[in-house]
Specification:
Chain B: It comes from Iocasia fonsfrigidae. The complex is a heterodimer of chains A (490) and B (79). With 490 residues, chain A is an alpha/beta fold. Chain A contains 20 helices and 15 strands. Chain A has three domains: 1-89, no CATH class; 114-168, 2-Layer Sandwich (Alpha-Beta Plaits), CATH 3.30.70.20; 220-488, Fe-only Hydrogenase (Larger Subunit), Chain L, domain 3. With 79 residues, chain B is an alpha+beta fold. The chains are: A alpha/beta (490), B alpha+beta (79). The A-B interface holds A 2, 4-5, 9-10, 13-14, 17, 244-247, 256, 369, 372-373, 375-376, 380-384, 469-471, 474 and B 11-14, 16-22, 24-25, 42, 44-45, 49-50.
Chain lengths: 490, 79
């Protein structure tokens, strides 16, 4: 999803970086109030009617960077007070959804799907009027007029018009959402229907006004890194390859994260190896007992999709823990507070998974852009590091090629097939919530029988996640290269 | 054969966060006859963090660039 880095993305990242820098410089409480003005003065944003509106929106973005739930009533306080609270209070994480709407930033774009443009010439044929099955088009003031109460948004008029004068528009957020989780809220703004949302983050990427964003966990992470008496471990997702710019390989990233204060840096792909073994065993068992299709459990968005929209299929979700949780379990036992585990990856849904399923195994989840903002805030430039090769931790830094490829669409099913060494397995894969939804619908209706379905919430798999910084095409190439290198070394 | 112009792209973490990889990708897509007249280098930092992505084209530092502005500047410098 990092194929294009829009102005909206830049603003979000800049705010994260500024907040991180203020914390590292011990100036957060003192300077946060002036941050919106500083940023507008520098010309970061100048799209709205006036700079006061820009600043009001920036305030909300800063609150999200601070990890504050902006839907809560007490988020209306001054930034200074909110900043003091988040710094003083012990690290507490709420199960409130991380993806959230910034009401002020929403442009209330049209919710009427069929739209007559100026290209309408009030022609003689009136194909639009004739094509409408509900008699919803009249000619008013020499122009086609759609009667909203009658329109069923079928789109036939748009197809019928010889001039293409009627267009079909949809809010970008709701078009991007494959599960109808974007609804029309109060005051005609968009709203997120929690019951339907699978936390894939597609709406965040889609909204050109940056009105949908996510609650960050950088403050908690920085606090753990700076004040924790215990060990703080970075659990880095397999998709890290190429995410931090040219030359930043595993050794450099590890050096940078250690400089930041992590006492240990490990690869989540190591946990993926265990997942491959366990999930394969489970699949074999399910086939033997004729239990029907098995679904991968590593993608939290895909899991959300089944749980919320296909409850009849939930029994098929593999009970194997995700690579994140497996790796965390290798590091600490449940309830063991001496180690702080921070997962670093491309995913927003992992934030929810960590709260719902980790039983305290995961203490924080950061996206690649969040950790990069923290690094920059701390004055660490990865491009300048990389003196020497570090010693690899044998258990947690030497995953198999199959485990490394977990992050690309098709990688999980390939790994399972490789490990099963069994002919005739019926496997299907889908990437992106829309495709997953289509396939699940067919499975649910019994259109075909398969043994295993790999579902990925993001197109291209994790390397296309909303928290990535490098486009999936580039990441895929680097992943291939790395796999070859691992192969040669074996 | 005319002289090459130098194009330096900052790949520091701050610039990377602001999209320096898009600049590299757009340079990758340039036509061959332009590409062969460019001396491309990656730079660790240009000391303008916060104004990224930064590039230096024929010695001139440009901040907050986009792929479009970079291509435009390169073409101007080559004339």
């Amino acid at each position: 999803m990092a194929e294009v880095i829009s102005e909206v993305t830049k603003i979000r990242r800049r705010v994260l970086t500024e907040v991180a820098a203020l914390i590292f410089n011990n100036r957060l409480v003192e300077d946060v109030e002036g941050l919106p003005k500083k940023l507008t003065d520098e010309g970061l944003t100048s799209y709205r009617c006036c700079q006061y509106k820009e600043q009001a929106i920036l305030q909300e973005r800063i609150k999200l960077a601070l990890g504050i739930d902006i839907t809560a009533e007490d988020s209306k306080k001054r930034l200074e007070e909110l900043a003091r609270n988040v710094l003083d209070q012990p690290v507490a994480r709420s199960d409130k959804p991380y993806i959230t709407l910034i009401e002020e930033a929403c442009d209330h774009c049209s919710i009427d799907k069929m739209f007559v443009t100026n290209a309408c010439r009030n022609c003689v044929a009136h194909n639009c009027v004739n094509s409408c099955p509900r008699d919803a088009i009249k000619i008013v003031d020499n122009r086609a007029f759609i009667i909203r109460e009658k329109c069923i948004e079928c789109g036939l008029c748009a197809k019928a018009c010889s001039y293409g004068a009627i267009v079909e528009i949809e809010r970008p957020c709701s078009r991007a959402c494959a599960v109808d989780a974007i609804v029309s809220g109060d005051k005609a703004s968009a709203a997120i229907e929690e019951g339907n949302c699978v936390e894939c983050g597609a709406c965040i990427v889609a909204c050109p006004f940056g009105a949908i964003s996510y609650r960050s966990e950088i403050v908690n992470a920085i606090k753990m890194l700076r004040h924790s008496q215990s060990e703080t471990v970075a659990l880095v997702a397999p998709s890290f390859i190429g995410q931090f710019g040219p030359g930043v390989d595993w050794d450099v990233l590890k050096e940078g994260l250690k400089k930041l204060g992590f006492t240990r840096v490990v690869m989540v792909a190591a946990g993926a190896d265990e997942v491959i073994r366990e999930e394969s065993r489970e699949l074999l068992e399910n086939i033997e007992f004729n239990k029907g299709v098995t679904f991968n459990s590593c993608c939290p968005s895909f899991k959300n999709l089944i749980n919320k929209h296909y409850p009849e299929l939930t029994a098929g979700i593999s009970t194997t823990e995700s690579p994140m949780l497996k790796t965390a379990r290798l590091l600490k036992k449940s309830g063991d507070d001496d180690i702080k585990n921070i997962f670093i990856g491309p995913c927003l849904a992992k934030k929810g998974e960590a709260i719902r399923e980790s039983n305290g195994l995961i203490d924080g989840v950061l996206t690649y852009e969040e950790i990069a903002a923290v690094l920059v805030g701390a004055g660490i430039n990865l491009a300048k590091l990389g003196g020497e090769k570090s010693r690899r931790d044998n258990n947690l830094e030497n995953p198999s090629i199959d485990a490394l490829n977990f992050c690309a669409a098709g990688g999980v099913s390939k790994a399972i097939l490789n490990s099963m060494e069994r002919d005739g397995l019926q496997v299907k894969t889908a990437a992106g919530i829309r495709d997953c939804d289509k396939l699940l619908k067919q499975i649910s209706r019994g259109v075909f029988k398969i043994d295993f379905m790999e579902g990925m919430g993001c197109q291209d798999g994790c390397i296309g996640g909303p928290g990535t910084m490098t486009g999936p095409a580039k990441a895929k190439g680097l992943l291939k290269k790395m796999s070859r290198e691992v192969e040669m070394n074996v | 054969m005319s002289e090459k112009i130098s194009v330096e792209v900052c790949v520091g973490t701050s610039c990377h966060l602001m999209g320096s990889n898009l600049i590299m990708e757009c340079l990758d897509r340039l036509a061959d006859n332009i590409k062969e007249r460019i001396d491309l280098r990656y730079v660790q930092c240009m000391d303008r963090c916060g104004k990224g992505p930064n590039v230096r084209i024929a010695g001139v530092l440009l901040d907050k660039v986009t792929p479009e502005t970079v291509v435009e500047e390169i073409k101007k410098s080559l004339i």
